[in-house]
Design goal:
The complex is a heterodimer of chains A (about 120) and B (about 110). Chain A is an all-beta fold. Chain A is about 0% helix and about 55% strand. Classes of the chains: A mainly beta (about 120), B mainly beta (about 110).
Chain lengths: ~120, ~110
């Protein structure tokens, strides 16, 4: 079955760190573009980061310099290392597979999400 | 403030038809494909429409998408109670160089 399963969320103090994982099955992470998208409580969707199949990485301005996206090809797993966490980073974090073309960019597969709460 | 603009909420009776609008600009909707996502209560988003008007396998043909200029619409016909959800439009933005979302529209089936 093709699916994504996130883990690693939890409660962390402001300024702390957390690493999210997203285990993929049914397809190869390294052959695809993979993203993280977050949703603050009661709010809309916000794109966070992407890693291209070639390894290039990009980030939303709100997390640039604090978050790092990576993958482990041997484990077929996507990661999001989050440092210097702030209260405004509190959200459900979804990993998603990205389909990209010249004029299109969409998320065709989503995980169930993992909740990150930043609070003292 | 979202880059793409959607109405916060819409409502309609069962078996009727409803449309949800999504307004953008030349750097996003005007130049790139629009996608729609459905988020059922307490669930993860799910791709509903891609490339303006295409349905992924398994999505009911009661859902349809359209685009004109810098605006797009999602239409749902034959409304059912299970259609109650939040709906998000999205597109790549050439100026920001990121994918952007609308703020979401909550659909209530009366």
């Amino acid at each position: 079955e093709v699916q994504l399963v996130e883990s690693g969320g939890g409660l962390v103090q402001p300024g702390g760190s957390l690493r999210l994982s997203c285990a993929a099955s049914g397809f190869t992470v390294s052959s695809n573009y993979m993203s993280w998208v977050r949703q603050a409580p009661g709010k809309g969707l916000e794109w966070v980061s992407v890693i291209y199949s070639g390894g290039s990485t990009y980030y939303a301005d709100s997390v640039k310099g604090r978050f790092t996206i990576s993958r482990d090809n041997s484990k077929n797993t996507l990661y999001l290392q989050m440092n210097s966490l702030r209260a405004e980073d509190t959200a459900v974090y979804y990993c998603a597979r990205v389909i990209v073309g010249q004029v299109y960019w969409y998320f065709d597969l989503w995980g169930r999400g993992t909740l990150v709460t930043v609070s003292s | 403030q979202s880059v793409l603009t959607q109405p916060p909420s819409v409502s309609e009776a069962p078996r009727q038809r409803v449309t949800i609008s999504c307004s953008g600009s030349s750097s996003n909707i005007g130049n790139n494909a629009v996608n729609w996502y459905q988020q059922l209560p307490g669930k993860a988003p799910k791709l509903l429409i891609y490339y303006d008007d295409l349905l992924p396998s398994g999505v009911s043909d009661r859902f349809s998408g359209s685009k004109s200029g810098t605006s797009a619409s999602l239409a749902i016909s034959g409304l059912q109670s299970e259609d109650e959800a939040d709906y998000y439009c999205a597109a790549w933005d050439d100026s920001l160089n990121v994918p952007v979302f609308g703020g979401g529209t909550k659909l209530t089936v009366l």
